[in-house]
């Protein structure tokens, strides 16, 4: 029928078929961020429809599929288009209060939901589809379950009105936040990638970290953390920066599995790093009512400890392997052009912070950041105007990334609608309280496990939304600060990408490192162990978050000392062969517990180890003399 490259979005006829879709998506994102929402219904429903068509075209039709596979994709596109068109008519009629759904309305809604499920399966993964299907079935048949877990029942008409024909389901609040706030920052990340900022950040990181024994591994952590905060996807960050960093880490002398694990853990942590936090900060601000700036401030110290622990693990591994720093080696300095290329990253980020401090909305701050980065990019590289392929690739990548997150949160809307209508979230909260018997520690463990299970195979934003709505109320009922409960969920949703058996970031790094995926995921788990403990630290010591009511300088100092002690002891455990290394591990865990005696013992052990190491060092120096 058609040649293989007919639908190729990079050239040929396919490029001209796809061009209007991508351009409309990007233009809509920029307009909404800069001038506001001109029609709420059109933005929510229209963006969803456009995103669905883009993904089906870019990821399905444009691939080398058989003609009948492409025909099926076209049927899906037609189904989504018809179902969303029907939405505009039915939703308007329902507002009158006199309209009841007809059979044709039910059919259209089911077609739309089925097409959405298939699209989510392809671009997000099966886990989210399974969760949506289970929740949908619970809504229909929950009245047959025991009263402890069941509900009074919802008929299909009422369910479809809520899920498809209202702003409480697929087109609910999550997709509104995504379309009004988050998409502009996704476009910002795609723009920086097109301008080549990532390569310059890598080179800068290598220059700054050459004094460390870990060298290239430390550089990978720094670069991935900087760029990961904007990209919003651990896997995309691994693939983007890992092709450069992982071979260099291996060349430095680290094992292949260690190299892949470093990149996976560093890339995942980018979503924990202010100011953008992979867009999850904006969702959190909307859900909690806490200002975006306060969320960034609260996330600052925990994110610093996350990366400090990774630096410590790399240093310990380098010392174990007998590596030394390469500070005396000549390094290739950044050229003037490369230094200038940092400006489209540094100045827009600074602009975002300044505008937010002065009361600007996140969307408007993102809009001006995109404008600033675009202008600076064209000034620094005027030849971009003669390289339309680079600009086109930015449009394609931005539109595809924006479409992926739009479809993902649309699916989450199904879960939210059912939970609100059936009280499922309250039942989960009651179950956690009953099983935990009022114990905060047990409840946190259950919440952490739930986050890891539900987060496996899901992007951070939908994983966060599902988990916080299901389990958040239970933890807050035990006296945990709202911001602490939400950051707790974000941390474990992010860390699910390096947690076996579905460690997506680790599995993405494995083929680049030419290592066994299981070994990479297990090593990632070891390197990220402090990350698993940090949420417990700021729940029990909320002064680490800086903005809680219980904040005080004294409690902050204690929290800093105990957390540093935990990092020191746990990293020491995995870098030594001493018989008492497991004592280090246990004491490191104890350092972040709420028990003063355990904290004191951990700090005392750290002081003892530091004094012993100083004595060993002075003895070696005296021997040399």
Automatic annotation (TrEMBL):
Predominant cellular place of this UniProt entry's protein: membrane
Domain TRAP C4-dicarboxylate transport system permease DctM subunit: 113-548
TM segment ranges: 12-35, 41-58, 70-89, 124-142, 174-197, 217-246, 291-319, 340-357, 363-380, 401-419, 431-454, 461-484, 490-513, 525-545, 551-570, 582-609
Keywords, comma-separated and alphabetical: Cell inner membrane, Cell membrane, Membrane, Transmembrane, Transmembrane helix, Transport
Record's bilayer topology term: Multi-pass membrane protein
NCBIfam families: TRAP_fused
Function, as annotated: Part of the tripartite ATP-independent periplasmic (TRAP) transport system.
Protein name, entry field: TRAP transporter, 4TM/12TM fusion protein
Source organism per UniProt: Neptunomonas qingdaonensis
């Amino acid at each position: 029928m058609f040649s293989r490259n007919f639908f190729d979005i990079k050239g040929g006829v396919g490029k001209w078929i796809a061009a209007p879709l991508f351009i409309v998506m990007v233009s809509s994102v920029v307009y909404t961020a800069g001038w506001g929402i001109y029609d709420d219904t059109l933005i929510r429903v229209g963006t969803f429809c456009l995103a669905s068509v883009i993904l089906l075209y870019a990821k399905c039709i444009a691939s080398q599929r058989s003609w009948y596979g492409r025909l099926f994709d076209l049927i899906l596109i037609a189904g989504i288009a018809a179902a969303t068109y029907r939405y505009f008519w039915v939703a308007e009629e329902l507002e009158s209060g006199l309209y009841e759904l007809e059979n044709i309305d039910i059919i259209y809604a089911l077609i739309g939901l089925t097409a959405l499920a298939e699209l989510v399966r392809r671009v997000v993964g099966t886990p989210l589809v399974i969760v949506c299907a289970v929740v949908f079935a619970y809504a229909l048949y929950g009245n047959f379950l025991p009263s402890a877990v069941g509900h009074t029942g919802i008929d299909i008409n009422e369910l479809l009105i809520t899920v498809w024909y209202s702003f409480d389901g697929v087109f609910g609040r999550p997709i509104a936040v995504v379309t009004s706030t988050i998409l502009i920052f996704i476009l910002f990340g795609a723009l920086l990638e097109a301008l080549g900022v990532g390569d310059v950040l890598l080179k800068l990181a290598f220059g700054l970290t050459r004094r460390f024994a870990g060298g290239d591994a430390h550089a990978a952590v720094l670069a991935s953390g900087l760029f990961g905060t904007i990209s919003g996807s651990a896997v995309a960050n691994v693939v983007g920066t890992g092709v450069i960093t992982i071979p260099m880490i291996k060349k430095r002398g680290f094992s292949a599995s260690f190299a892949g694990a470093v990149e996976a853990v560093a890339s995942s942590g980018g979503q924990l790093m202010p100011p953008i936090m992979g867009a999850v900060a904006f969702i959190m601000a909307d859900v909690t009512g806490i200002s975006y700036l306060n969320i960034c401030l609260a996330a600052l110290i925990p994110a610093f400890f996350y990366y400090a622990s990774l630096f410590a693990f790399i240093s310990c591994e380098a010392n174990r392997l007998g590596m030394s720093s390469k500070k005396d080696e000549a390094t290739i300095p950044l050229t003037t052009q490369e230094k200038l290329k940092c400006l489209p990253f540094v100045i827009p980020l600074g602009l975002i912070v300044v505008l937010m401090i002065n009361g600007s909305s996140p969307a408007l701050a993102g809009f001006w950041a995109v404008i600033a980065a675009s202008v600076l990019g064209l000034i620094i590289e005027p030849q971009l105007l003669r390289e339309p392929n680079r600009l086109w690739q930015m449009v394609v990548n931005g539109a595809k990334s924006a479409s992926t997150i739009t479809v993902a949160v649309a699916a989450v809307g199904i879960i939210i609608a059912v939970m609100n209508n059936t009280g499922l979230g309250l039942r989960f909260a009651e179950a956690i309280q009953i099983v935990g018997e009022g114990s905060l520690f047990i409840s946190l463990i259950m919440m952490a496990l739930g986050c890891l299970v539900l987060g496996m195979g899901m992007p951070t934003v939908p994983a966060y939304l599902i988990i916080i709505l299901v389990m958040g109320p239970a933890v807050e009922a035990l006296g945990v600060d709202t911001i602490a409960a939400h950051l707790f969920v974000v941390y474990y949703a992010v860390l699910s990408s390096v947690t076996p058996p579905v460690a997506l970031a680790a599995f993405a790094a494995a083929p680049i490192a030419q290592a066994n995926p299981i070994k990479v995921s297990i090593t990632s788990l070891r390197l990220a162990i402090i990350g698993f403990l940090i949420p417990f630290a700021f729940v029990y010591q909320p002064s680490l978050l800086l903005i809680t009511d219980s904040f005080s300088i004294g409690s902050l100092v204690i929290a800093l000392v105990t957390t540093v002690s935990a990092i020191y002891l746990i990293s020491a455990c995995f870098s030594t062969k001493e018989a008492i290394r497991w004592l280090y591990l246990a004491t490191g865990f104890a350092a972040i517990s709420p028990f003063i005696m355990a904290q004191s013992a951990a700090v005392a052990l750290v002081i003892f180890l530091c004094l012993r190491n100083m004595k060993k060092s002075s003895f070696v120096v005296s021997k040399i003399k």
